[in-house]
Amino acid sequence: MLENLKQSGYKIGVITDVPTGMPTELILQDINAFKDNIDFFLSSIDCGFRKPNKKGIELISEKFGIDLQNIAFIGDEEKDIQTAKNAGVMSFLINRDKRNKNYGEDIQIKSLIELLDFVK
After folding, report:
1. pTM here?
2. Are 105 and 52 in contact (CB under 8 A)?
3. pLDDT at residue 89 above 80?
4. CA angle 40, 62, 39 (to 5 degrees)
5. What is the pLDDT of residue 25?
6. Does the structure show a pLDDT above 90 at 91?
């Protein structure tokens, strides 16, 4: 899915919370399989704030030179949706376990592949 989005001209940024004191390099090892499809990676350590603070999304907006209204934030936790809301960007909740969830997201999907319905 990430490769498809990149080929379609979308920029992909990742924001992740990490435990205090954990080096970002350890997280980068976890995304090694798909890191070539990410344009900007930001950890809470690098950013200086944890979700639901909007600073990470603002930094991605600045990095890409795009307005916040042109950003979609995708996550699988309530704090992800709150982060999107705090920044004023569109929010997608990935609900893979099919439990009844409603965190105030704009759109709920079951997998990343469903994004294709919204970006084309």
Report:
1. 0.91
2. no
3. yes
4. 15
5. 78
6. yes
CA distance 79 to 45: 17
Helix axes 55-64, 78-87, angle to 10 degrees: 60
- What spatial distance separates the first Cα and last Cα of the chain, rounded to whole Å? 13
CA distance 12 to 5: 8
Render pLDDT for 93-105 as a digit per residue (tens, 0 to 9). Answer: 999 998 999 999 9
Q: What is the dihedral of CA 30, 66, 89, 27, to 10 degrees?
A: 10
Give me the residue label for tokens 């924001």.
15
What domains are defined for the chain?
Answer: 2-119 (3.40.50.1000)
